[in-house]
Amino acid sequence: MAPIATVIDTDPGVDDCIALLAALASPEIDLRAITVTHGNVELGPALENARRICALAGRTDVPIHGGAARPLLRAPYRGKFHGRSGVGPLELPSPEVDVSAEHAATALARMLRAAARGDTPPLTICTIGPLTNVALALAQDPGLVAGVARIAMMGGAFQAGGNRTPSAEFNILADPHAARIVFASGAPIVMAPLDVTHQAMATPARVETLARLPGRVAAAVAELLAFFDRKDPARYGSQGAPLHDPTIIGWLARPDLFRVRRAPVEICIDEGPAFGQTIADWWGVTGQTANADILTGLDADAFFAWLGETLGRYS
Ligand code: BDR
Ligand code: CA
Q1: Phi and psi (nearest 5°) for 117?
Q2: For a substitution probing ligand 1, which of 14, 18, 82, 154 has the most ligand atoms within 8 Å of its CB?
Q3: Among 23, 72, 148, 301, fewest CB within 10 Å belongs to which?
């Protein structure tokens, strides 16, 4: 199968960095650009981290575009588990590529237009941060949806409950209005919500296995994961951290490792306790057409074996 033409939209972020490293080493993924958004950290440090991760991966061929510096309507909202720099205590190598002059939303729209014309393959937009850039791109022309193969996102939460409010997951909560535009766009959507990422626990034993891989990339990933440990076994059922963003990269590379359920999904934008909540009509009570494939389960051991094999390519 031809590698999947993909753009990753990201707010690096500890788990974003691991997701980027995995995507850059996955033969199943043809990474055509990285678009960067506000989110875990401000746009400036997020861009810096994306550039430094590419330097760590030894890649200078992937264009990096800066995008939205704030959400569409709500006040800026930052991550909680990534440290001031976004990468905890990790020292990353100096950037080797400049930031493109083209805004992320303009770059996404250009690539979608080319795909809609049939000049390039349909584009997979893999989002691992707030959805502002994607909403800004799609808002430029409803015809751009024709160029989307799928929007594969880490975002949302159902039975798992939220991680920043009792109901909302960070990526949706950081720009619920953008998420609403994306979910109403008609583009095919695949979601990795907290329900599935909480099954991808980077336990101490799994981190140790990754740390034993040779090379500086594996060492960096192990350091990031040690910092990311949530120390909350009551919630997660084990020590370690849920490996949110790499989960959707794992789905792109190895969809056979996941269970999926299709449903209509809406985003709550009412100010109040449900602000930013993702609501799935699991039992078809609304009669609405399903707009999302929701990842509900994964084979965690096989997922970590895939991650180790993929990161092992750097050594
Ligand atoms: C998401 O929020 C961010 O802090 C992580 O990078 C991930 O994308 C998990 O809710
Ligand atoms: Ca993220």
Answers
A1: -75, -15
A2: 154
A3: 301
Q: Is the beta carbon of 13 within 6 A of some atom in ligand 1?
A: yes
Q: Is 278 in the pocket of ligand 1 (CB under 6 A)?
A: no
Q: Residues 71, 173: contact at Cβ < 8 Å?
A: no
Output the CA 61–ligand 1 centroid distance in Å.
26
Give residue 117's pLDDT: 97
- The pLDDT value given to residue 227: 87
Residues 143 and 148: their CA atoms lie apart, in Å, by 10
- Our answer on whether the CB atom of 195 is closer than 6 Å to any ligand 1 atom is no
Instruction: List domains and CATH numbers for the chain.
Output: 4-312 (3.90.245.10)
Determine the Cα–Cα distance for residues 231 and 141; give it in Å rounded to an integer: 45
At 233, give phi and psi (nearest 5°). -65, -25
Task: Establish whether residue 245 lines the binding site of ligand 1, counting it when its CB lies within 6 angstroms of any ligand atom.
Answer: yes
Relative to the alpha carbon of 169, which ligand is closest? Answer: 1
Strands 189-192 and 64-66: unpaired
Closest CA to 154 of 97, 194, 100: 194
Atom of ligand 1 nearest to the CA of 174: 2
pLDDT digits (tens, 9 = 90+) for 256-303: 999 999 999 999 999 999 999 999 999 999 999 999 999 999 999 999
Q: What angle in degrees, to the nearest 10, is found between the helix axes of 300-311 and 14-24?
A: 70
Q: What amino acid positions are annotated as catalytic residues?
A: 244
- The angle subtended at Cα 54 by Cα 112 and Cα 194, nearest 5°, is 70
Cα gap 161→183, rounded to integer Å: 20
Using CB atoms within 10 Å of the CB of residue 119, give its burial: 0 to 12 exposed, 13 to 18 middle, 19+ buried.
exposed
**Model-level pTM?**
0.97
Unique residue bearing structure tokens 């609304």:
286
